[in-house]
Design brief:
This protein is an alpha/beta fold. A 6-stranded parallel β-sheet has the order 5-2-1-6-7-8, sandwiched between helices. Helix 3 packs parallel to helix 6 and helix 3 crosses helix 9. The termini are close together.
């Protein structure tokens, strides 16, 4: 019997890396050994993963020797440098950064949507999609297969954990500074004044506010996050001409990205037919009884694996269009879980080799 493959987790001490260790502990064991890798300041730390205490190792070329699959959750520039190093040392790299997502020679994989693409990796690298895209695409894909998608209009409501621990810390700091002042939010500039310079990674206060900007400047006034929603949806669904319009908004939620979706299809659609499609779709949970107060919300989706879908209705002015709301844990399916699922597909492939 062939030995089980070895897995490396690069960025194991970060927010997503921590969730990854939790997932590996709770999922089916397909790994013979696991190596936890991080920056120099974390080397030597002990982290519990899969029932044992593992020592964090330094990111060096030699650490990938004997590794079959290396999962990366590090900044773009680190992945761009080190994922090819892992490949040269014999590993298949699964990258959660934005470094390779739109590379023509790197598949962008969502296992519920296009698992066959894991075998199409001429560079030895597989990319994970943006966390906002992932929350939305597992709901859109089965509807596309049924009705033929033609256009998406998206409005995202993005949690602060998408900006890492600095985003979470900034929101909690702001909330503590304004706590108890019930007059805030009723006068121009009063929230800005109360929060002061405690903005963290955001351009404006998140407490008692929403910020219609996420990411860095892109083309034509769009942000990088808005362009990623368009470009990644096209690549994952293999629809290069798909029309996509997106507006990304930061909201004062710790964990759980949400998207309001207006999807236009090639044929007429109805809400009940869409619900039936989604009931049978992998990776989603249907929560759709507004009159009973049941709809998808990040406070319920946090800590869970599926994307939560609800508020499904046919658009008021187009019988070919659906409106619905989707939310999911951006640290799990939006990052760690999808990466782990890709890696598990590779483990199955390696076991058959």
């Amino acid at each position: 019997m062939a030995s089980l493959p070895t897995l490396a987790v690069v960025g194991a001490t970060g927010a997503v890396g921590t969730v990854m260790c939790e997932l590996l502990t709770g999922r089916r064991n397909v790994w013979g050994g696991i190596r936890l890798i991080a920056s120099a300041r974390s080397v030597g730390r002990l982290i519990r993963c899969r029932g044992e205490e593992l020592t964090v190792q330094a990111l060096t070329p030699e650490v990938f020797d004997g590794v079959d699959v290396a999962m990366f959750d590090v900044p773009d520039e680190v992945s761009a440098e080190w994922a090819p190093v892992a490949v040269r040392r014999g590993a298949i790299a699964v990258d959660n950064s934005g470094a390779f997502r739109l590379d023509r020679d790197v598949p962008l994989v969502v296992p519920e949507v296009n698992p066959e693409q894991v075998g199409n990796r001429p560079r030895g690298i597989i990319a994970n999609a943006n966390c906002t895209t992932l929350a939305m695409i597992v709901a859109v894909a089965p509807l596309h297969r049924e009705y033929g998608l033609r256009e998406l209009v998206l409005s995202s409501y993005q949690a602060v954990s998408g900006a890492g621990q600095a985003g979470v810390d900034a929101l909690h700091t702001q909330l503590s500074k304004i706590a108890g002042d019930r007059g805030l939010g009723s006068r121009p500039g009063d929230v800005r004044q109360a929060v002061g310079d405690e903005l963290g990674p955001f351009p404006a206060p998140l407490a008692l506010n929403v910020v219609p900007w996420a990411g860095s400047p892109g083309d034509g006034g769009s942000s990088s996050e808005e362009m990623e929603l368009r470009d990644e949806s096209r690549k994952i669904l293999a629809l290069p001409d798909l029309k996509v319009s997106a507006t990304c908004v930061q909201v004062p939620v710790v964990t759980g990205h949400s998207v309001a979706v207006h999807a236009v299809f090639a044929t007429e659609v109805d809400a009940e037919g869409a619900r039936e499609v989604l009931r049978n779709a992998p990776g989603v949970i249907l929560v759709d009884d507004p009159l009973a107060g049941e709809f998808p919300m990040p406070i319920d989706a946090v800590g869970t694996d599926p994307s939560w879908i609800g508020r499904i209705r046919r658009a008021l002015d187009d019988p070919r269009a659906l409106d619905f709301f989707v939310t999911g844990d951006n640290l799990r399916k939006g990052a760690a879980l999808n990466t782990a699922q890709i890696a598990e597909l590779l483990a199955t492939e390696l076991a058959r080799a």
